[in-house]
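Late entry, evening session. Most of the bench is empty. Finally got around to the prediction I had been postponing all week. Sequence below, unchanged from the version circulated by S.P.
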Amino acid sequence: MPSNVNPTVRRRRLGQELRRLRELKGMTAEEVAERLLVSQSKISRLENGRRSISQRDVRDLCGVYEVEDHRIVDSLMQMAKDSRQQGWWHAFGDIPYSVYIGLETDAESLRVYEPQMVPGLLQTRAYAEALINGALPEAPPSDIEKRVNVRSRRQDRVNAPENPLRLWAVIDESALRRVVGDKQVMIDQLEHLVEQSHLPHVTVQVLPFDMGAHPGINGQYAILEFPDAADSSVVYIEGVTSDLYLEKANDVQRYSVMYEHLRAQALNVEQTREFISKIAKSYTS
């Protein structure tokens, strides 16, 4: 697959354009579904980029929307073709959060709040393996290894020599206190966390217990932003059996404001490094 083609992002952009054409036509998703003799849920999935879009789907929808400019139709058809290509993550087989990986791969910046664990992009291999083993006690070793390898591959965005992912992580103290693996795994992980925090494009802040209640008390979330202005920001909330993606401007704004409060309540960068190092030393006793 060409390195500049991200199928997840292509689906998302194509879906946004199809939604725009539908709205210009003044039609509801239900009306379009009735015209094409398909379910309304299919139209919704096509527009939100969660489903592969075939060139036939594009042709049929352009017909319903009476798109007469062949250049527009050809462009949308090409996007549909690109959206069916495979990203690097498909080489690892079935990955339950492949949509998120596709978005993360194309993102310019990522703001994440983690209450229970060190963020995946900042995990050591030993920590990731112990964490996934604990989270999936019935998974076969091959599945654990696949997930660990995917996590390691995702970290290439953080360590890339050119255009690395801009990462801002706010981590709850509980993630540093929870012993994942053993004490040596934790020592290595916390030292790695401090080391990564020195990268110019990585910011790490810890939210200590004594800060009390805070806007992130309800759990983990991440905000992805993209270099292309046509791609709206996305709030990602991970679930056990399904994930939630929020793209409406009001939702993104609300979570962004929450994140600003988290950053304000957390320790600053230098205080965070000292705090993490102190906890790492406690594991040596």
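Two things to note before I forget:
The CA atoms of residues 115 and 183 lie 20 Å apart.
Residues 7-81 form a domain with the 434 Repressor (Amino-terminal Domain) fold (CATH 1.10.260.40).
Will write this up properly tomorrow.
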